[in-house]
Amino acid sequence: MLLDIGEVARKSGLSPATLRFYEEKGLIAPVGRRGLRRLYEPVVLERLALVALGRAAGFTLAEIGPMLGDDGVPALNRQMLADKADALDRTIARLMAMRDGLRHAAACPAPRHMECPTFRRILDAAAHGFFSRDKAETAPF
Amino acid sequence: MLLDIGEVARKSGLSPATLRFYEEKGLIAPVGRRGLRRLYEPVVLERLALVALGRAAGFTLAEIGPMLGDDGVPALNRQMLADKADALDRTIARLMAMRDGLRHAAACPAPRHMECPTFRRILDAAAHGFFSRDKAETAPF
DNA sequence: CCTTGACCTCAAGTGAACTTCAAGTGGCAG
DNA sequence: CTGCCACTTGAAGTTCACTTGAGGTCAAGG
Predict the structure, then answer these.
(1) For B15-53, b where at least 16 C-beta lie within 10 A, e where not — what string?
(2) Which of B74 and A93 is assigned the larger pLDDT?
(3) Contact positions of strand C to protein Cβ (< 7 A)
(4) What is the DSSP string of B81-116?
(5) Do A56 and B141 touch (CB under 8 A)?
(6) Which residues of B touch A79 (CB under 8 A)?
(7) Using one digit for the tens of pLDDT, what is the confidence trace for A8-49?
(8) Chain A residues touching B105 at Cβ < 8 A
């Protein structure tokens, strides 16, 4: 019924060290111990999935902590979620512009990239900070 | 004609410390000095734009260095560019999935997120690593 | 009885890209 | 000549999310 850290590690794909690290950060907690060994309820896997989801969405661990209520899933602030979704939209737009630029540079017939007008336009955009995300934006991709 | 570090900083939007850091990393170099002070040719701004572009595309500074020839823009390997473009495509797909998920969670009428089947599907995807990029993928977004 | 293997703790290390700091230098305005 | 202020250096500190290492505990199996 209860899982030990190795089982949680296997089922979640995280290392035991990472699980202990997450515990230190207040993201998860064992229900008890058997001797020294941590024992987890299976529901911890759901919590870890939530953490993975938050990370994927660009939240930091510190931000994710408060979102995970002590019980199930309370503090999911809908405004925050919507904000992250908007940030993702901006990121996606930037990435698509980048991708097109790269694609062009890869295919460009000009002997030197600097001589290609398309490449120069992209470069100008980069110079003017078009591609530089403001830290508030979605992060770790 | 020649720019000092403060001018380059202003025009590029980077701090002088960052410019010195880039120099340490071999990304840029002053043409000379006036006293202790670095003097740059205006073309350094183009080089910095290239660096910004590379960063935006997900290359690390270490990767960008060799791409910037000592002169203009030689070592831009077209295969690498195409690969990064492909990586960006995969990233974009993931981000779009995430964004839709967030958008749903933000709008979801279920009283608790865990009761929403859509949310649970997303959570499962997260649990199975759907959203976790493999480090080879495009990085800092 | 003794080894093995999985667990434990606490501290320190990693890497990326900077930023901050302390202490010093140099050119130009007044 | 004297300040001032933007510059100089090298080293250390920061953030994030972990990973690694040293040294220790414990239950089961041969």
Answers:
(1) eeeebeebeeeebbebeeeeeeebbbbeebbbbbbbbbb
(2) A93
(3) 6-9, 16-21, 24-27
(4) HHHHHHHHHHHHHHHHHHHHHHHHHHH--SSSGGG-
(5) no
(6) 106
(7) 999 999 999 999 999 999 999 999 999 999 999 999 999 999
(8) 76, 78, 81
